[in-house]
Amino acid sequence: MLKSRGMAVIGAFVLIALAILVRGLLVDGSGDGGSEPSKRPSGEAPVVACTPELSMVCAALADAGAIASDPPELDLADASDPPEDIDGWITWNPAPQVANFDAGQAPIWGRPISFGRATLAALMDPATQDALIAACDEVTVWACIGQAPAADLTVGVGEPTTAEGLARLAPIALALTPDRDTSQIPTGDLIDLVDGPSSQADAATMSRSATQAGVISIVVGPEDILGRAAQTNQGKDRKLQVAVATPDTKATVVLAPRAGREDDVDLACQDLPDDATAALRSAGVEPCTGTVDDALAGFLYQVEKKVG
Amino acid sequence: MRSRPNTRWIRLLGAGVAVAAVAAGCSTGSGSDSSSPSDPFGDPGNCTVIDVAVSSEKIDLMTDLAQSFNRSDDAELSDGGCAFVRPYSKASGGATTLLAEGWDEAAEGPRPVIWSPAASSWGQILNQRLADDGQPAMASSKPVSFMLTPLVIGMPKPMADALGYPQNPVGWADIAQLATSGEGWAKYGHPEWGAFKLGKTNPNFSTSGLNALIGQNYAATGKTRDLSTEDLGAQKTKDLGAQIESSVVHYGDITMTFLNNWFRTDRSGTSLLYASAVAVEEKSLIDYNQGNPDGVLDPGETPRKPKVPLVAIYPKEGTLYSDNPLYLLDADWVSKQEKEGAEAFIDVVQRPANQKKVLEYGFRPGNPDVAIGSPITKANGVDPTQPSKLLQVPDPEVMITMLDNWKQQRKGARVLLVLDVSGSMEEPADPDDPASDTKLDLAKRAAIDALDEFKGDDEVGLRVFSTNLGPGEDENYLDLLSVQPMSTNREKLASQIRDQLPQNATPLYEVTQDSFEDMADGYDPKRINAVVLLTDGVNDDGDDADDRSQLQDLLSTLQDGTNGENATPIRVFTIAYGKQADFDTLEQIAESTNAAAYDASNPATISKVFTAVVSNF
C-alpha cells in the first residue's frame, strides 16, 4: 500500500515536472514567432556568429569554450534569415534591429547587450585636409566629410550592406539628412560617397590602403584603427592624421541573442576572456563601454535600403 | 547597387590573357612560364611541398623568400613535419583558366596551394567563372595584398625633361597630342628624335596593356570612376583612343619586349628613336634603370645601368595598381598540412624583414609598417608620393565595349607571313611518336588559327620558302599572296597555308633579307609594318661557305633600315620552331629590327607562340 502510494507521489512529481517543462517550452516558443526554441542539450556551448571584421572575437570566445567551436560569420545581408543553428550574433549596432526590420513582423534577434564601443573618426593626409577646407571650411564635422566627393575626394566608409559599413556611414548620413527625415535622405549624394573609391572594405583594410599613395582620400572608422594606420612607417611618410569629427559619434559592438533563446547565450561583457577583450581592442573597440541605443535603427534601415 | 560581373567579359578577358600569358612563356624574354617547379630548391625530402604559382614578374623575389622560409623554423608543422615552399612562374590569366577549367598536372606542372596573380581582379574572375559552372569559389574575397606597383608611362629622361615633367603634369591626353602633332618632338626643340612613338601591350593579353587602355579612356572623359558605355561611345573618347594608338610602335604580350629593345638600343645610342614612351609597371621601370631590363638576373649577369634612364610619368588623369594578392586556394587538392604550411608562409612574407625584400625588388610593400624607400626613389626615376589618383576598375560590360572598340581603334598592321616549308618540316612534331602530326601540320594549323586575330583592315600576305621552288624549280621563295586587306585575303590565306607541303632546303638569310626589303619598299607609316618569319632550321641554301658573310650583310641591312631618323622600320618577329631551329641567329635577326624572337622549340607550343606573335599587331 505504502509502496503504491509512493509510486503515485513520484508519478505526480514527474507529471508536474513535465508540465512545467512543456509550459516553459510553449512560453519560450510563442510571442515573437521569429525563432524556434533551442534544441541544444543543456550544457552545450551556444553557436554564436560574428560579423567578418569581428571574427577574432568569436575565435577567442570559441577557444575559451564560451561558444561553440568553428563560429560562423554572419553579416547584415543574411541576418534577416540566418541559419537555424545560430543562437547569437556579435556585430555592430544597430544591425540586429535593422535585420529585424528587414525580416518583417517576427523579430529574429532579441535585445542586444553592449560589448564595447569605438569613437568614429576620419583619417586623411594634409593635402586632403586642404582640399576639404577649400570645399567647406570646417573639416572636422561629418557634414563636411560628406561633401568630399564634390571636392573630387574619395571616402572609405565600407559597404552599407554590411553591419560595419552601415555603422561607419551613419554619422555622415545623419549629418546630410535634415531632421533625420527619412524622406529627405540624400540618396544620390550617399551613393556617390560609397561608390567613390575603386572599392569599399572594412575600416582596417581601408586604412591600410590609405597608406598607399592615391588609393583613398579619407577613411572613416574606429579612431584606434585609423590611428594605427597613421602610426605605420608608410602612414607617417604620408603624414596621415586622425580627426575626431563632430558631432561625436560612437559605434557599438553588441551581442544579440536569437529571439527566444536569450537564456542560451549567457555572455556578459565583464566575463569575457582576456583574448576576447584583446580581440575587441584589436577591432578598435574599448570593451565593456557604452550602452545599446536602437534609436537610429529605423533611420539606418532606410539608408541601407536606399544606398545599399 | 553593384552590378554583377559580366560573364562574357570575364571569359573573354580570362581566355584572352590566358592564351597570351601561356604563350608568353614561349617567348624569349624573361617572365616565361615554367611548367614545373624550377631547380633552385633542391630535394624537399620528406617535407610537405607547398607549390606556389606566381606571376612572372615576382618569381625571383618569391624564390628568394621561399628559400629563406624553407631553411627557417617557421617551416615546422604542428605534426613535427616540415613545409617546403616551391614557387614557379605562371602567368595570371593562364593560371586563372587552368584553375577554372581543370589543371592538367602532366602538362602544366603541379596544382598550386598558393596562387599569386598580378592583381586580385584575377581572383574575382576565377570565382565568377567557377560560379558560372556551379562550383564553389577558390579564391578568398579578402586576400593578403602582398605588395603593390602602379602602372606608369615610362619615358626616357631627356624626353620627359623636354615635356617639363614633373613640373608640368603629363597624362594620356598629352600623349595623344604628341602622337598627332605633325611636328613630333620638333615641337619641343628636338627634331632629331623624330615622331612620338608609344609602346603598349595588347590589352587582350596583358594586364598593363589593359590598365593603359582603361587609363586612356578615363582621360577622355575627365572622370576617375563610373566609366560608362556612353562615355566610350562619345566621339571625344574614340578620337583620343585613335590618336594614342596611331603612335604605337607595335603591341605584344609582355612589356619586357619593349624594355629589352630599349636597353639594347641604349648601347648604340638609338633608344630615343626606338620608342618615346612605354606603358609599364613602376617595378619594371626600376629594374630597367638599375640595368636589369627583364627583371631577372641570370647567374653571372651583372646589371649595367642604361646611358639614358627612364622616368616614371604618373598619368595626371589617374592610374591603377597591381596588388599582387596571395590566395591560399580553397581547393580539394589542398591538404591540412599544406594549408598549415601555406598559412605560415603567407604570414612570414608579410613580416617587416621580408617586406623589406619586397622593396629591394622594386615593389611597394603591402605591409604599411615598412616605409617605402630605396629603390623606389627619385634617383631611380620614380616618385613614392605618386600616384595622386587611383582609377576605378570599370564595370565588366564597359570593359567589353572598351576591348571591342580597341579592336577598331588599334593601329592597323601590314604583315608578311614567311613560312618555312623545307623538308625537315615533314618530321613528326613528337619525335617519340612517328605517327604524330608533322611539324608543318602543326604550324599550318597554328598559322590559320592566328589569322582570326587580324582585323579586316589589316593587310597580310604570304610567302613560303625552301629551295627549288616554282615552275622552273629555281626559286628560293614564292609569294603565294601579296599583302592585301584581310577582308579580301582571309580565306585565301587559310587555303594557301593549308595546301603547303614540305620540300627541299632552307634559304633562310636570302628570304629574310628580301622580305625585309620588299616590305620596306611598300612601307606604310600609318601601320605596324612587320615580317613574321617561322623556320625550323638553320640557313641551308646549298652553299655554307658564305653563310657568315651572308648573315652579316643581312644584319647590317636590317639595322640600317630600322634605325635613324628616316628609317622605315620593318619589325621581323621570328619563331624558332623545333629543336633544330637556330634560335640565336633568329634572335639576332629580330633584335636587329627591334622586334622579338619567340621560342617554339617544343612544337606542341606553336599554337600559343603564334598567338603571342600576332598579339604584336
Number of contiguous helices of chain B: 22
SSE arrangement of chain A, N to C: HEHEHEHHEHHHEHHEEHEH
Q: Approximately how much beta-strand content do the residues of chain B carry?
A: 15-25%
Uncertain runs of chain A with pLDDT below 50, 5 residues or more? 15-34
Q: Helix count of chain A, per DSSP? A: 12
Please give the largest β-sheet of chain B. Answer: 6 strands, mixed
Mean pLDDT of chain B: 89
Tell me the structural class of chain A.
alpha+beta
Rg from alpha-carbon coordinates of chain B: 24 Å
Shape field of chain A:
globular
Specify the biggest β-sheet of chain A. Answer: 8 strands, mixed
Greatest interface and its residue counts? Answer: A-B, 28 and 28 residues
Secondary structure class of chain B reads alpha/beta
Layout of helices and strands:
The complex is a heterodimer of chains A (308) and B (617).
Chain A: H1 2-29, E1 48-50, H2 55-63, E2 88-92, H3 95-103, E3 113-124, H4 126-136, H5 142-146, E4 155-156, H6 163-176, H7 187-195, H8 203-209, E5 218-222, H9 223-231, H10 233-237, E6 241-243, E7 250-257, H11 274-282, E8 286-287, H12 297-307
Parallel strand pairs in A: 1-2, 4-5
Antiparallel strand pairs in A: 2-7, 3-5, 3-6, 3-7, 3-8
Chain B: H1 7-24, E1 48-54, H2 59-71, E2 83-89, H3 92-101, H4 105-108, E3 114-116, H5 121-132, E4 144-145, E5 147-156, H6 157-163, H7 172-180, E6 198-199, H8 207-221, H9 229-233, H10 235-245, H11 256-267, H12 271-274, E7 277-281, H13 282-289, E8 310-313, E9 321-322, E10 325-328, H14 336-349, H15 352-360, E11 364-365, H16 396-409, E12 412-420, H17 439-450, E13 459-469, E14 475-485, H18 486-498, H19 508-521, E15 527-535, H20 547-562, E16 571-577, H21 583-592, E17 597-600, H22 606-614
Parallel strand pairs in B: 1-2, 1-3, 6-7, 12-13, 12-15, 15-16, 16-17
Antiparallel strand pairs in B: 3-10, 4-10, 5-7, 5-8, 5-9, 5-11, 13-14
